[in-house]
Amino acid sequence: xxxxxxxxxxxxxxxxxxxxxxxxxxxxxxxxxxxxxxxxxxxxxxxxxxxxxxxxxxxxxxxxxxxxxxxxxxxxxxxxxxxxxxxxxxxxxxxxxxxxxxxxxxxxxxxxxxxxxxxxxxxxxxxxxxxxxxxxxxxxxxxxxxxxxxxxxxxxxxxxxxxxxxxxxxxxxxxxxxxxxxxxxxxxxxxxxxxxxxxxxxxxxxxxxxxxxxxxxxxxxxxxxxxxxxxxxxxxxxxxxxxxxxxxxxxxxxxxxxxxxxxxxxxxxxxxxxxxxxxxxxxxxxxxx
Length: 289
Prior knowledge:
The structure is a single chain. This protein is α/β, with parallel strands linked by helices. The chain has a single domain, classed as Rossmann fold (3-Layer(aba) Sandwich). Helix content is 43%, strand content 16%. The protein has helices spanning 2-13, 64-70, 96-109, 123-133, 156-171, 175-180, 188-198, 207-220, 222-228, 245-249, 267-270, 272-288, and strands at residues 27-31, 37-43, 49-53, 75-79, 115-120, 138-144, 233-238, 256-260. The protein has an eight-stranded mixed β-sheet with strand order 1-2-4-3-5-6-7-8. Strand 3, helix 2 (64-70) and strand 4 form a beta-alpha-beta unit. It is globular and about 45 Å long.
């Protein structure tokens, strides 16, 4: 039963969909390695450069409060991953490796150095993948409410269940389902309306495929990829599920976790002030390395 609960939690923490309204930002598009257009916001100036990577089924707009706060001191880039938001979906390979190449393409095209990758949910393995591809450009990784059981393996029956659960949540969302799965605990009505807003899309191309890509990465590549990372890794996690720090440190000995209590998966919305404070602290720690 304990293992089943961990697997169900994995299903929950890899999914969040939410829209947040609009800010006036510098919108930029580049072509990725396979010809897919990647859209992103690019605000502020200063080192390090903070790259914000959203989770499955959401967009760069989940980072609205972070873009506003951190662009006062740093250059901040918030990306729409292919298949989501304003980015293209003309892709065949929806693996974590492909998403890692997308982020690397932005970094290389803009000639960025001293980069901090901030990956929420699905964005966490993408951050790990990118850091493996271009280690000389990255100074630190912040994982947001993800990879709490780094050694977790998802058997085929559970993978099928996760696929069904997640696709049901995007095609037939209800407030009750989302609250029950601990996606959020605060501002329930307004957050739910934003969820409905982002789900008003013309296509789900790549959504199911990226679920499979995430599970494949977790099962077959996660621990090796974490072990190969050359920069510090810090997690900012909710207390929904215990983070297995001892397990993570087998592969990344300097790994640290910072816990935010009484929040859902969407930490940066449920407690924006605390999340920004912990991310600020983490950035300073990377700069001192």
